[in-house]
Every structure is written in C-alpha cells, then in structure tokens.
C-alpha cells in the first residue's frame, strides 16, 4: 500500500461509516414512523416525538452515570453553548413526524429534497461554504424532479406540504448549526444530543397538552397490541440512533452531505412507500418526477464520494482532548 493510501484510509473510513449509519437509521425510522402513524392510525405524532426525546435523555443519562460516555455537566454557560439548537431540534422533529403522517412516503421524500437547496444556502451564509458546479446541477435535478412530482400529486394537502417544507428548513439549519457547534468542541456530540432534548422536553409536553395530543394518545385503544407497541418502542430507540448518526455524519462529512444522504436513503423509501402505508396514488407525471429526483440524488452521491478526501477534511476524534473524554 502506498503512502497516499495510508493517508487516505483513516480519512475515508469514518466518512463512509458515519454516512452508512445515518442513512440506515434514517431509512428505518421513516418506515417505522409511517407504520405507527398511518398503518396503526396512532393519533399523535407529538407523543411519538416525546417518546424519542425521553429515550435519548434516559440513554445518555444512564450512559454517563455508568461511565460509558462523558459530556459536560450543566453549567451557567450551557445555554449559550447550545443555543439555538434545541429550538431547531424540536421544530425539526415535530414537523418531520407531522409530514410523515399526512403525506404518502413517495411525496414526503420528494419534498424533503428541498432541504438540500436550503442547506446549500445556509452553508453559504453561516459557514461560507461554496458548493461546486456539479453539486449545484445535481441539486437542481432533485428539486426539479420534486416539483414535477408535486404538480400531479392527487393526495395533496396544504398542511402536509407546509409541515414538510418547514421540516426542510429546520433540517437545513440544524445541519449547519450542528456542524458549527461540533467544530467549536464545547459540548461534544453527546452533550449536544442530551441538552437538545433536555431543554425542549417541557415545552414539547406543553405543546402536546395544549393541542390535545397527550389526551388523544392516552385514549388510543391499541396500546395492548404487541405489534404496535414494539414498533412504537423501536421508533423511540431509533430516534436516539438517528440523532447520533446525524452528529457523526455532520462531523465527518459536513452539513450538505448529511442532508443529501438523508435524501438518498429516500430512494428505498420512495419505492417502498408505494407499497406500504396504503396512501400513495400512482400517476405517470408524479412517478417520472420522483425518478428524476432520485437520479439527481444518485449523481450527487457519486460526485461527493469519488473525490479523494483531503487530509484536513476532518479532525480525528483522538486529536481532540474533549473528544477523548466522550467515549471511555
């Protein structure tokens, strides 16, 4: 193996691993959430989001208590270090679950590609990152395909479209600010995950109570159904795994690549969603638009991962004293 190969290996492996972890977690949680909210007709996507937040808090609290992971304890400057991520996190979670409930999976995944365009704009404003021409063209293909699909979406609902496009905005801003906070190395990835949920759990409970979602979920008649319960609990656990995958992928690959990997996994979700959920209505215009958007996702992935990574493309965790303390 040449010296160049030796240099490239440690850079490429965490990039690919974090991308696969995030993509797999994102795919699984999208499908499971759709099963819970649509197939089982669970009435409250906010209650499902609360379950994911509570699971993340419990897992990280116990992991720190047993010395499995470490992150800073709460201090007077913790809010300053993490702000505005908790608000973005809550908005991202609620709008994502709401959009999943109200739209078919193929249209949900197509509209989610607008988050890529928004991420490009946010990276340019916040991080001063300039995408290449190839990236711009591939993103344009994804967005145009989504617009064509939306033009003949017979299952259109205004609230569903508003929720998904809002989710795109929160996804874009979340990715950019997570990257910024991770680069500052103040709280670390576990600290960001923990305090995001901790700071927003009470506001989320208040919103769910005020909208009647807590009562609706309490009155749900299928809590004794083992299939529903197992899928509900799996969604809660996958919420934690997804948050971890987002942190890793953003750390090693950047906000835009993380966003596009999330949309790339939607290739499987797009076609699977035509079968599961029971709410997709086929039309040729819609189907062609979905495939154009999918093709743009594939091209972007090719152009992104064929490039030889720079030795400075990320800072290995072992080089950060704080990162050393995050995992024992």
Description:
The chain is built from 15 helices and no strands. It has 328 residues and is mainly alpha-helical. The chain has helices at 3-39, 45-65, 78-82, 85-102, 105-111, 114-127, 133-151, 158-184, 188-210, 213-218, 226-253, 255-264, 266-272, 284-305, 321-326. The longest helix is centred in the first third of the chain and has 37 residues, at 3-39.
Q: How do you describe this structure in short?
A:
By secondary structure, the chain is mainly alpha-helical.
Poorly predicted residue ranges:
1-10, 308-328
The total of helices stands at: 15
- The run of helices and strands is HHHHHHHHHHHHHHH
| Beta-strand proportion | under 5%
Radius of gyration: 20 Å
User: Average pLDDT value?
Assistant: 74
Q: Given the helix and strand composition, which structural class is it?
A: mainly alpha
Note the main sheet: none
Topology of helices and strands:
Layout: H1 3-39, H2 45-65, H3 78-82, H4 85-102, H5 105-111, H6 114-127, H7 133-151, H8 158-184, H9 188-210, H10 213-218, H11 226-253, H12 255-264, H13 266-272, H14 284-305, H15 321-326
Helix pairs in contact: 1-4, 1-11, 1-12, 2-4, 2-9, 2-11, 4-8, 4-9, 5-13, 6-8, 6-12, 7-14, 8-11, 8-12, 11-12, 12-14
What attributes does this structure have?
disordered N terminus; 328 residues; mainly alpha; disordered C terminus; 0% strand; 15 helices
């Amino acid at each position: 193996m040449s010296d160049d190969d030796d240099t490239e290996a440690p850079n490429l492996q965490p990039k690919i691993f974090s991308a696969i972890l995030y993509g797999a977690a994102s795919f699984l949680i999208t499908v499971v959430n759709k099963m819970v909210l649509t197939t089982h007709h669970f009435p409250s996507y906010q209650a499902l989001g609360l379950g994911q937040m509570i699971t993340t808090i419990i897992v990280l609290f116990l992991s720190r208590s047993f010395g499995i992971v470490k992150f800073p304890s709460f201090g007077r400057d913790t809010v300053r270090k993490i702000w505005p991520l908790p608000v973005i996190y809550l908005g991202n979670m609620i709008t994502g679950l709401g959009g999943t409930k109200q739209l078919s999976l193929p249209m949900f995944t197509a509209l989610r590609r607008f988050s890529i365009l928004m991420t490009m704009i946010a990276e340019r404003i916040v991080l001063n990152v300039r995408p290449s021409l190839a990236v711009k063209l591939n993103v344009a293909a994804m967005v145009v395909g989504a617009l064509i699909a939306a033009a003949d979406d017979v299952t259109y609902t205004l609230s569903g479209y508003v929720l998904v496009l809002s989710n795109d905005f929160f996804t874009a801003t979340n990715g950019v600010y997570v990257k910024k906070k991770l680069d500052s190395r103040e709280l670390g990835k576990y600290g960001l995950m923990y305090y995001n949920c901790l700071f927003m759990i009470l506001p989320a409970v208040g919103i769910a109570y005020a909208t009647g979602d807590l009562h609706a979920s309490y009155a749900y008649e299928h809590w004794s159904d083992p299939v529903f319960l197992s899928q509900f609990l799996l969604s809660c656990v996958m919420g934690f795994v997804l948050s971890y995958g987002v942190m890793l992928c953003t750390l090693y690959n950047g906000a835009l690549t993380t966003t596009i990997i999330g949309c790339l996994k939607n290739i499987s979700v797009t076609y699977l969603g035509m079968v599961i959920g029971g709410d997709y209505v086929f039309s040729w215009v819609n189907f062609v638009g979905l495939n154009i958007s999918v093709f743009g996702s594939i091209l972007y992935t090719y152009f992104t991962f064929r490039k030889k990574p720079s030795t400075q493309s990320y800072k290995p965790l072992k080089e950060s004293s704080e990162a050393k303390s995050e995992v024992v």
